[in-house]
Amino acid sequence: MNKTYFPSIHNLEKYWYIVDAADQRLGRLASEIAMVLRGKNKPNYTPNIDTGDFVIVVNAEKLNVTGKKRSQKLYRRHSGRPGGMKTETFEKLQGRIPERIIEKAVKGMLPKNSLGKKLFTKLKVYAGPSHPHEAQKPQQLNIKTIPGVENQCK
């Protein structure tokens, strides 16, 4: 008789992690953050339960992309009105609202249901190096991306 593992409420400890996005690649950073938010790095991971942790991302304005994505990658939003489509490049959006780039990348890697919406609320992104979550005593989360790739791609 097989039984599905279901973690009890006492086993679901939530931790806070801090990630420095300076000189990190967007996609690799977002996939690691999504994995921690989902809880896939824990032994008690269950797909239909929120077993993930909180993630604070600082220095979102210093995020890197490779190739020509800085000028060619487009971000679209729609007002809901006819002709209300707005598009802007990565470079313009990073100058205006750098937090939104990481938020959109991570949100696209989470489940598209109510669980995904709940997981997304545990992501905190800040443009600069400071954040208001010192009371939670966040631990440093080291994400290893490939350094120096933008020089090889040109």
UniProtKB/TrEMBL annotation:
<dbReference type="GO" id="GO:0006412">
    <property type="term" value="P:translation"/>
</dbReference>
<keyword id="KW-0687">Ribonucleoprotein</keyword>
<dbReference type="GO" id="GO:0017148">
    <property type="term" value="P:negative regulation of translation"/>
</dbReference>
<dbReference type="Pfam" id="PF00572">
    <property type="entry name" value="Ribosomal_L13"/>
</dbReference>
<keyword id="KW-0689">Ribosomal protein</keyword>
<dbReference type="InterPro" id="IPR023563">
    <property type="entry name" value="Ribosomal_uL13_CS"/>
</dbReference>
<dbReference type="InterPro" id="IPR005823">
    <property type="entry name" value="Ribosomal_uL13_bac-type"/>
</dbReference>
<comment type="subunit">
    <text>Part of the 50S ribosomal subunit.</text>
</comment>
<dbReference type="GO" id="GO:0003735">
    <property type="term" value="F:structural constituent of ribosome"/>
</dbReference>
<dbReference type="GO" id="GO:0003729">
    <property type="term" value="F:mRNA binding"/>
</dbReference>
<dbReference type="GO" id="GO:0022625">
    <property type="term" value="C:cytosolic large ribosomal subunit"/>
</dbReference>
<protein>
    <recommendedName>
        <fullName>Large ribosomal subunit protein uL13</fullName>
    </recommendedName>
</protein>
<dbReference type="InterPro" id="IPR005822">
    <property type="entry name" value="Ribosomal_uL13"/>
</dbReference>
<comment type="function">
    <text>This protein is one of the early assembly proteins of the 50S ribosomal subunit, although it is not seen to bind rRNA by itself. It is important during the early stages of 50S assembly.</text>
</comment>
<dbReference type="InterPro" id="IPR036899">
    <property type="entry name" value="Ribosomal_uL13_sf"/>
</dbReference>
<comment type="similarity">
    <text>Belongs to the universal ribosomal protein uL13 family.</text>
</comment>
